[in-house]
UniProtKB/TrEMBL annotation:
Protein name stated in the entry: Uncharacterized protein
The organism's place on the tree of life at top rank: Bacteria
Length: 119
């Protein structure tokens, strides 16, 4: 599954939402992606489109300068509408890459794998 978004929004610590860390985007077609985790939770949540959030562990996320690749286990493909991966193409110029990387590290710490292809 692929999404093209103008930018990725990241917040490593939303104090109004009990320190929730979030990464989200909206495509030009209006598709929404949201990945979040509370600091005291052992799983992260992913919402795609109008679907209810799904809790996961074992997610792999790879960040490159213009792409975020999310890979889920075979048993979790229902979260991504039957796909085992989601590729989000985005504009790095419009995205705060430092904040995005910090947020991904927080969300995936202990519950997933984070790989950076940023130089």
């Amino acid at each position: 599954m692929k999404i093209t978004a103008p930018l990725l929004l990241a917040n490593p610590c939303d104090e109004e939402e009990e320190n929730l860390a979030t990464v989200c985007c909206f495509s030009a077609q209006g598709d929404m992606f949201l990945m979040s985790r509370y600091p005291d939770e052992d799983e992260l949540e992913i919402s795609l489109g109008d679907n209810d959030p799904s809790s996961l562990a074992g997610v792999k996320v790879t960040l490159s300068p213009t792409r975020l690749l999310l890979e889920v286990a075979a048993g979790d493909v229902d979260v991504l509408n039957g796909d085992d991966h989601l590729e989000i193409q985005f504009d790095a110029e419009a995205t705060d890459m430092q904040e995005l990387e910090q947020t991904l590290t927080l969300i995936l710490d202990g519950v997933g794998t984070y790989a950076s292809e940023l130089s």
